Amino acid sequence: xxxxxxxxxxxxxxxxxxxxxKLNRTEKKIIKKVELLNTESINxxxxxxxxxxxxxxxxxxxxxxxxxxxEFKSIGFKTEWIEMPxxxxxxxxxxxxxxxxxxxxxxLIGHLDTVFEENSPxxxxxxLNDSIARGPGANDMKGGDVIVLYxxxxxxxxxxxxxxxxxxxxTGDEESTGKPLSISRKKLIEVAKEADIALGFETSxxxxxxxxxxxxxxxxxxxxxxxxxxxxxxxxENTGAGSIFEMSRILNSFYEEVRGEEYLTFxxxxxxxxxxxxxxxxxxxxxxxGKTNVVAQKTIVNGxxxxxxxxxxxxxRNKMREIVKQNLPQTKATIIFTDSYPAMVxxxxxxxxLTILNxxxxxxxxxxVTAYDPGKRGAADISFVADYVDGLDGLGTMGTGAxxxxxxxxxxxxxxxxxxxxxxxxxxxxxN
Length: 432
Hints:
This protein is of the alpha+beta class.
């Protein structure tokens, strides 16, 4: 699928390069239509931001999904809510599609949930001035969802989606993915396998950047046991080093021997050690008991690993495994890894899509678009489909303070981003 797409895409780049500084008559109509929808789009953003949809607030996530459901139906999309198993404690996902035979098959990706749960004091959309608003998930990423909706609204209102093939996927658990991933991301991967292009609408870093690569995310856990004994015997042949010294050796060796590759990072997030350790993985918290005159019996570290490819991930894991095996006297250590997000590798198809987006931006009077540094971006849903379809991400709204009570969205640039998205989609669905 990717190869045939690349051939047709490469051939048409010559055409788009020639048109870089021009908008045709239809595209000028699209721009005007988006401008007319500006106030409506901002009001809609305020409406959905004011509904709490923290990942674990199943009712709130569904409510936001229902609002988008109504809007997509109004412009001719068939919609579907994908339920998740009750034991997963996730609301599910919203999908919408039109199934024509014209142009490229496009998958547009967003998410309905935010990091702000029902008990968060940060709950309301508030305009700080005529350009900036503050609100939970206003930028990450209800703003991106609104860009998708209103770009498609403008095209639909001009009857430009006739016979297009577009699928919209708004997941309900991007901020904390339901497990197992084989269930929570099953539908997303299925539709990606049928698509030619995937576009993600996570937070934008500006008009002059887009994301052609994202690092993957993986978890790791090291457990060390030592011999519980009086501290007067520490370092002796019979007592050994204790679990905390062994964990210190392991972490220092990770830092000295695994660190250094471009885009590879790993971070120990929690560390508990002592005589007795009780760790709750669901809450990421725990308790310890120990005394300074007792050699530590147990130590646990939980961490994360970021990588740009599966090869880099596996190489790092193998190095970490070897370090964990080399135990200090009277200690034993184990390490386990858990997969979360795969990497979005910077493919040639992704780069070609960036070229088309660049031409769109130039034709709208913006600066050129270049690839954003993947080391500065977190994981996202587009990573789950990157093995099956070429794509771009970072096409959402601009703002600051994501995942904090100071999260803002730039309202003044939102309409221009919707225009760019509408023109981008229009050109893609008119490619053979």
